[in-house]
Amino acid sequence: MQKMARFHTLEVADVKRETEDAISIGLQIPQDLREDFRFIHGQYLTLKLEVDGEELRRSYSICSSPFEEGRLRIAVKRVHGGRASSKLVEQLKAGDTLEVMTPMGNFYTLCDAAHEKHYVAFAAGSGITPILSILMTTLRSEPKSRFTLFYGNTDQDRIIFRQKLEELKAQHGDRLQVHHILSQGSDEDMLFNGRITTDKAVQLMKRFLTDDLHKEYFICGPEQMMVNVSEALEKLGVEKKRIHVELFTSPVTEAAKKPPVPVGEGAFTGTADVTVIIDGREHAIQVSAEGDAVLDVALDAGLDVPFACKGAVCCTCKARIVEGQVEMAMNYALTDDEVEDGYVLTCQTHPRSAKVVVDYDQH
After folding, report:
1. How far apart are CA 137 and CA 296, in angstroms?
2. Where in the chain is the domain with CATH 2.40.30.10?
3. Angle between helices 128-141 and 162-172 (to 10 degrees)
4. Are 229 and 151 in contact (CB under 8 A)?
5. Is residue 67 within 8 Å of residue 140, measured between CB atoms?
6. Which CATH number is correct for 7-101, 2.170.150.70, 1.10.8.100, 1.10.357.10, 2.40.30.10?
7. What would you report as the CA-atom Rg of the chain, rounded to the nearest whole angstrom?
């Protein structure tokens, strides 16, 4: 069981310009917070920023490896119209401080030195960020495993971590293969030009994944690319349990992020007595079956419950239902096993019984 996520003030050790519109941020971790910020490759950090007097929370993947003691790196790419990313990319400098939540996320498989696997990743744009952490950690932890990366970008100048990837290729030899696919490319082989479509993903895998090693697949980037690659893997008959996907945004429109949750016939429709457990303390709130989600009601009541996206994408607001019945409107972050064990995304959770107990300490 993990401790509930908390924000801490961290100093920015350095800011490195990776491309014209992307930076990586080194965060100094004090000795007394080393355990709190211990992370697994592929996880992310949530930042709390104030922009024009408004509090914004944004999650950014860790691009460093757990082997790098005392310092964490995240990458931020400026999003068109993005207030948080624009402020970070344009203004952040070494010596500044940031409010940072402890690491979270499930986009990984655990490493084992005895493994002899072939890891395959499809990334596009800033989707490389968690993939880089996974790649570096896996190659160091599993000397018999290998890694193939298919990385999509607009052009050479937009390739985030291009130099780092070249260094890793030189370091690991034929254990690491990196294939760049550029939408504005001019390679003689058309397979490396244009966007990563379903057909292109199938062709790439058929050409470059010819060994018999057990394979694990990781996909991160824009939604359409992830859909295309997922369809390609389905066509190739890959088991779903070997496919790991990291969403950056909810695959719904902003207006549809919180759809009303219809209450089934005969189900509970009243106002539930909900007990929220945080740091061992119990708090009582009233939550309507047909009203706001548990997280929103808890926040309105002044409770310091963790959250980030509120769109069912991250698992920052994850908690366990230890009593009562609930229903989630959407879920893009929890695994089937976690749901089976009673875990929910509280930003999407609505009561379906008169009494519910939500335990944030069982994260």
Report:
1. 37
2. 7-101
3. 20
4. no
5. yes
6. 2.40.30.10
7. 21
Closest CA to 315 of 39, 54, 43: 43
Name the architecture of domain 117-246.
Answer: 3-Layer(aba) Sandwich (3.40)
Q: What homologous superfamily is domain 271-359 in, according to CATH?
A: Beta-grasp domain (3.10.20.30)
Say how far residue 202 (Cα) sits from the centre of its chain: 25
Residues of the chain with pLDDT under 50: 1, 252-257
Give the HSE-up count for residue 192: Cα atoms under 13 Å, Cβ half-sphere: 15
Confidence at residue 1, expressed as pLDDT on a 0 to 100 scale:
44
Q: Within the chain, which residue ranges are assigned CATH 3.10.20.30?
A: 271-359
Give the C-alpha separation, 267 to 310, whole Å.
25
Q: Output the pTM of the full model.
A: 0.85
What integer best gives the mean pLDDT of the chain? 91
DSSP summary character for residue 206:
H
Residue-level pLDDT at 255:
40
Structure-block tokens of residue 348: 């999407």
CA distance 274 to 293: 11
* E runs forming strands in the chain: 7-19, 22-28, 44-51, 54-61, 71-77, 97-101, 117-124, 146-153, 176-182, 214-220, 243-246, 271-278, 281-288, 318-323, 326-328, 343-345, 349-351, 355-359
Question: Locate tokens 């390739």: which residue?
Answer: 159
Alpha helices in 31-102 (DSSP H): 83-91
pLDDT tens-digit profile of 98-148? 999 999 988 999 999 999 999 999 999 999 999 999 999 999 999 999 999
| Separation of alpha carbons 72 and 14, rounded Å | 11
